[in-house]
Amino acid sequence: MGLAIVSSRAHLGMDAPEVAVEVNIAGGLPGMSIVGLPEAAVRESKDRVKAALQNCGFDFPAVKITVSLAPADLPKAGGRFDLPIALGILAATRQLPGKSIARAEFIGELSLDGRLRPVHGALSAAVAAGASGRQLLLPRGNLAEAALVADADLLGAEHLLEICAHLSGADRISPPPTQPPAYSSSPLTIEDLSEVRGQAAARRALEISASGGHDLLLIGPPGTGKSMLARRLVGLLPPLPDAQALEVALVSAAASGLFDVGCWGQRPFRHPHHSASAAALTGGGRVPRPGEVSLAHRGVLLLDELPEFARNVLESLRQPLEDRQVTVARVAARTTFPADFQLVATMNPCPCGYRGDSVAACRCTPDAVDRYRSRISGPLLDRLDLHVEVPRPPPGRLLRVTAGESSNDVAARVAAARQVQLDRGWVNARLPGARLLETCRPRRDGLRLLERAATRFGLSARACHRVLRVARTIADMDGAVTLDQSHVSEALSLRQIDRR
Fold it and tell me: Which residue in 331, 346, 436, 486 has its CB near the most CB atoms, within 10 A?
């Protein structure tokens, strides 16, 4: 007869809520029951635990065993509770010192011979355990992933017997070596900006977008290099700080359960097909999982052929673009995921793609063009800072133009401009409204120019604010303290659709 309580962690999105595994040994018919909203994999734990304990030489009591996973209203999934249940049985039957399990948390799936298999959600469990100040014991296969959390106290083991020997004091497990995680270079940077010939205006817009974190729409005929330019934006962004790299890792682990440590420090690049649903972009599922807007957190989301996406899919982007997070509500749970991504989109000027092209003639009627462009709503366009035309350069000019600057050269200027903004506290595209006029107020000539443009082109208040943010970025790139007319003028020139 006995009772033992072992601390563990569940896996819910980016979070790892604490779970108390309570094991009670009582008289009655032999058997084990698990309560506390367990799913099928958790209910099957009793068979794995019994076989593992017996194969490791422990006595499995022929009595009534009740396992309660508290809190009872939190869904429990996966095999992560095998290890704490086994340790709870050993502690309740006095085969293991009860005090030794009170100072740590445990997660791990047991094989039938007692080996520990990796589980999903180890990274979020390490974050939560580090915040609680307790040690986390987990399978060695999860140790590299969990070690990305700098303040986590971790121990990894291959077998249940290693854990028991450590807890009994017979053979202590050595802690992993403490070393900063190695940043990997993104394979996306192989696509260098120097491969883009010509398109000086679009390259300039790409640098402005990267410098200020501005969302970008590229408009032009097929084959002018829109997608080629868009794919190179992620290579211009500065390296991720540790805190942001951990955010990216947590979102990735929330989607797949595991995080590839070889991708540590990479800015994500997501490129969904235009047939993707709204749930694929914003997140969904019975148990909420992040969508493309969250998987692109701190990175780039490319939407190629923007008008080809369904209208409801495009409208679902409005809230993430404004709030930089998305809340997925389902029957099982309600979860909020971060979505601070940089959107780069491409589109043709008309359905056939050749309106205004110097090579091919457009066959679209004005009504067809209007219907095509109306697939992108005005509120969504308002939220995109830059609308840039990418015309077709003459073939002879393409063959004569030498290679432009490399991504590394442009990235160095981008990093310098961003540092100026971070010294003020915010990247310009994320500048709070309360700080907007204080930081982005132009001189009198620039203010008059913006007023005339707003009247002539019918700019909304949001569009005017976007112009000011872009102008501030251009000034930061030039090393200017104040905004003058030239900065506002260039920012206005980068909103082509508004000017039409």
Answer: 346
- Cα gap 26→64, rounded to integer Å: 5
Q: What integer best gives the mean pLDDT of the chain?
A: 91
Contacts 24+ apart (CB under 8 A), 187-190: 188/231, 188/234, 188/235, 188/266, 188/269, 189/234, 189/235, 189/407
Spatial contact of 440 and 483, defined as CB atoms under 8 Å apart: yes
CATH architecture of 2-168: 2-Layer Sandwich (3.30)
CA angle (35, 37, 38) in 5-degree steps: 80
Closest CA to 84 of 39, 52, 113: 52
pLDDT of 308-351, one tens digit each?
Answer: 999 999 999 999 999 999 988 876 678 899 999 999 999 999 99
Residue extents of the structural domains in the chain: 2-168, 187-407, 431-500
**Nearest-angstrom CA–CA distance, 191 and 173:** 45
The DSSP code sequence of 101-161 is GTTEEE--EEPTTSBEEP-TTHHHHHHHHHHHT-EEEEEGGGHHHHTTSTT--EEEESBHH
Under CATH, what is the fold of the domain 431-500? Helicase, Ruva Protein; domain 3 (1.10.8)
Tokens representing residue 279 in the block: 């749930």
Placement of tokens 């030489």 in the chain: 57
Query: What would you measure as the largest C-alpha separation in the chain, in angstroms?
Result: 90
Q: Nearest Cα to 9, choosing from 173, 161, 131?
A: 131
Rounded to whole angstroms, the Cα distance separating 411 from 407 reads 6
Distance CA 226, CA 277 (A): 23
| Exposed / middle / buried, residue 80 (Cβ in 10 Å: 0-12, 13-18, 19+) | buried
Containing 194, the helix (H) or strand (E) segment is none
* Rounded Cα gap, residues 485 and 453, in angstroms: 12
What class is the 187-407 domain? alpha beta
- The per-residue pLDDT for range 183-210, each reduced to its tens digit, is 665 444 468 888 887 788 999 999 999 9
- Residue 85 has a CB neighbour count (10 Å cut-off) of 26
Confidence category of residue 80, pLDDT binned at 50, 70, 90: very high
182 has a pLDDT exceeding 70: no
